[in-house]
Structure formats: C-alpha cells, structure tokens
Amino acid sequence: xxxRALSWVCSCRRFSLAETWYTMEESDAEDELTSFLDDxxxxxxxxxxxxxxxxPKAGDVLEVEVERCRSEGGEDRKLHKWTLxxxxxxxxxxxxxxxxxxxxRCGETAFLRSKKxxxxxxTLRLLSLERNEDIxxxxxxxxxxxREGRGWKTPKAPCEVLLRFSWQALASGDKIPxxxxxxxxxxxxxxxxxxxGSADWIPGIYGLxxxxxxxxxxxxxxxxxxxxxxxxxxxxxxxxxxxxxDIELLQIFTFEDISLDRSEKIMKKVTREGxxxxxxxxxxxxxxxxxxxxxxxxxxxEAASGRFCAALEEAVLSMKKHEICExxxxxxEACRDEELAFGPGLLVVFLLELLxxxxxxxxxxxxxxxxxxxxxxxEVGSFFFQKSSWRQALKRYQVVTSNLGYLHSWKNEASKAQxxxxxxxxxxxxxxxxxxxxxxxxxxxxxxxxLTDEPHNVKALFRRGQSLKELKEFREAEKCFRKVLAVQADxxxxxxxxxxxxxxxxxxxxxxxxxxxxxxRGIADTxxxxxxxxxxNDKPLxxxxxxxxxxxxxxxxxxxxxALEEEEDDGTLTLMGISALLACAAAGYMLLRRSR
Length: 596
Description:
The protein has helices spanning 2-39, 97-101, 204-211, 310-317, 367-386, 390-403, 413-436, 440-453, 458-470, 474-487, 492-530, 541-548, 562-595; strands at residues 40-46, 61-69, 75-83, 109-114, 121-134, 141-147, 159-171, 174-175, 181-191, 194-196, 219-224, 243-257, 266-272, 285-292, 295-302, 324-329, 348-357. It has a 17-stranded antiparallel beta sheet that branches. Helix 5 packs parallel to helix 7, helix 7 runs antiparallel to helix 8 and helix 11 runs parallel beside helix 13. 40% of the residues lie in helices and 24% in strands. The chain is α+β, with helices and mostly antiparallel strands. The chain has 13 helices and 17 strands.
C-alpha cells in the first residue's frame, strides 16, 4: 500500500510539473500573440486547410510569396525561401516578416498592416513548410517534413502501414552516387514495440519512432547517424557517414482483436475506413458482401442471430457503413460455418464489406418494444448456451442487462414487471456462463446483482456459493448454502456442498493452527538464544509458549449440531488470533531489545 501511495504521489508530481510547463509555454505563446496584435493588424484572406495545424518554428524552411503594397501605387510580388530564425531575405520597414510568418499555417494567405509610426502593409502567402525535428534530442535522428499528411490518423500498434521509401549514404553532407536503395513500396507491421517488414528499414526502435506521429500522405527526409546503424544488415561503402531515408506514408491499416476472449485469434484488418461513427446493434438487419477464396456473394441477415460463425458475426458488430475489412481467424470453433463453407486450414481469411444496416435505437423505443427486443436477445443467448458457446451467450445476456439497467422511471407497470423478471433471469444466466468459463469473481458479482433485489433467490445463492468455494472463501460459501437450505430444506446438492465445505474449513483451521504454532516456536527459540533463563526457572520458554497455544494434534470432539460446530470453529479462530498477537508482541519485544 505504501509503495502504491508513493507511486501515486510521484505520478501526480510529474503530472503537476508537466501541466505547469505546458501552462507556461501556452502563456508565453499567448503573450507573444498579444504583443504581435498590438503592433500589427492581421486579416486572413484564405484559411489554411484543416489538416494544416502546424505553425512555423525556428529551424523550419519556409517558402513564402510576399506581395508588398507601395505607397506610390503598384505592387511588388516575389517568392522567397529561407530558414526561419535566420535573417529574412525580404525587409519591409515597420513590418517584421519573420514574426508575421510564425502566426500563419501552410496554405494560409493573410494581409498584414503595421500599427507603428512607419506604415507598411503586405500580403503573405505561406506556400510550403519543411519542418525540422530532432526526434531523439541529440542530433542522431533528424527528420525534415517535405509534405504534410492529411487527416488525424497516425500509426498505433497493432497496425500495418504501407510505405514508399528509399535510402542513400551520405559523406560530408553530400549523397554518395550509386549507393543506397531505389524507392519501393513495402508493407510494414507495427506491434510489440517494433516495426518489421524490410531488411533495409531503419533498425530497432528508431524506425518505430520515425513513424509514430506520421499521417497518411506525409513525406519526410530522415537522417540517421552512423552510431545508430550498428548491427544493421545494410551494407555501406567505406568512409560513408549517415544514411538519409526518403519516406512517404501511403496508407494505415488498423488491426482490432474482435475475439470474445481477447486471445487475438480473430483479428480484423481495416482496409477501407467506413462512413460516420454508428455501427450495427444486435438484432439489426445488415447487408453484407463477403469474399471467400475468390468467390463473392451478398447476404442479408440479422446481426448476432447465430446464423453465421462467431468470426463473421463479431466482425459485423465492429464495422461502420461501407467499411471493408479482412478477417483472419485461427480458432477452428469460431470460424466453423456450414452456410459459408470455409475451407479447411489453420487460418481462415475472408473479406467483408458492410453495405448497409438498419438503424435501431433501443433506448428511445417504447417500453413494451424494449422488452420485446430484450426477450429476443435472451432467446439468442439461450441458443448459444445450449451449443456450449459460453462467451457468445454471455454477450447476448449482457446486452439485455445493459438495456434494462435502470427501470425506476418506467411508467407501464406490466412492462416494468416483465423487464425486472427478464433482467433477473439474464443475471442468473450470466453467472452460469462465468462459472462455465471458471471466472469465479465475475460469477459472484452477477449473483450479487440478483441478491440486491431478491436476497433469498435460491439460484443466485447457490451459484454465489459455488464461486466463493472456488475463491477459497469457504465460510462465506458455507453461509450461502445454509441460506439455500433455509429456503429449500430438501436441496440435496446444497447439502452435499455444505458437507464438503465443512471438511475444507476444518482442514484450513488445522493448517492455520500449525502455522501459528511454528511461528511461536521460532520466536521462542530466538529469544532463548539471545537471553539466559533466570535462576531457578528450569522450564524453557519454548515449553511455556507451546503450553499457551492450543494443541494442534488434540482430538476434535464430534459435534452433531451445526450451531455448536460453528461456535467451536469461532472459538478456535479466537485462540489463533490471540496466539498471533502474542507472537507479534514477542517478536517486537526482541527487536526492541536488540536495537538497544
């Protein structure tokens, strides 16, 4: 607990420092902008495109068209290119061009007029911007962006990217002719902190660092120092220095694990992004185009109805309209489908396109319609449960409980009663699914949801007792089965479980007694080594300590009555607790004596 608290404090401190730094930088930028607006009037004529979010900084290479407005009439339009921070190639009295450009974005056109005594005005058009970045902060990995990308999507593991890149060796800053690799298109896989796919790609983690924040269509030059190339299979000519890569990001293919157990046995690769943000809900009618082994067909079905295999049905629920994806399934059970007749093999691959789907808004529907919808979902869940598809059944039951989570505001009493009964049945079925999957804690939580409204529900008590038994919570499990017998005295299964639990509790008590006995003997031996016995006292401390503890080998009385047996166990635990306190006190006393 102390380590967690310390970690939390440190993380808060880091966050506080980062937030302070960000606030200071943001404040400085605002002050600079306020000072600039005090000196210059700026009117934006043409807005920059939405993807052009970056504003120039020192070290960036700019190409700006400057159109000067002369007082005697006429205009002077020239194209200038320079590195920001160095003296600007154009000088306009009363107007700092370098400072004006820092407030613009690529593609923007602005009219600027000086407020100073020396009146000056000009129209600036930022045509191109080459960003220079020191990725590692020490000059070993430099990147210059020649063309900005589009959109906001960047590579995030796990994913696959399509690149066009070439490389060439440098010597004294110049390219060495007839060396390097011509431009080629390569599909690179990004996962587990690495980027693989081509032997002559930037080695190690540095290749991943270069790609991390690129966007589709972005082109850049990357210069890699010689010391980062150690261990690389790239053959360079003698005397050559760093390598320069010309990289263009063509496309990003995202991967998503759609397997219900998150085992990565069913992976979806998005080859074309869909429209909008909405996705099909369970029970909605969907229209699909599927391609298997070169054969293409269109199908119309109800989403998550059990008609097709799990790989297809789970993929459909994760897609957007007009999205195209490639599904790779390595789980034979999840891709077994009689209608689609997937070919045999360890890996099944098929293409899927969502052409259209029915828009269903379950939460906005009438109360009786919502009950009908949830009843159909429960039936589908029961269909999967009978097929022993526990996770598919579990997901259908969870859809019902999430749709019927809050019933306090329902006005139709008949629909409300049906919904509460349906929700209770699905919670019990969820608990049964979790027990089949051996997820004991989740099963206990599902039973608690039922017992909150109905404390004496026999199924919930029994299944909670089963889960607590597997969690080694024997006493709590015993209480659950006692409550079951209080409601159903002839429940043979609960009686059998109760007998098993009594034996487990006794065995646990004996083990704890033996453990505390060994602990006390060890403390007594340590004390005997550190101190001598007082004169006239011929009884060893070990014997005194042993005599103060309950005998772990003494015979247990046969008690027939359940209440007396439980009282005896409680007394044993009390003695064990007292023994533990005495042992801890003795250990503390010995440590204190030794420190003095």
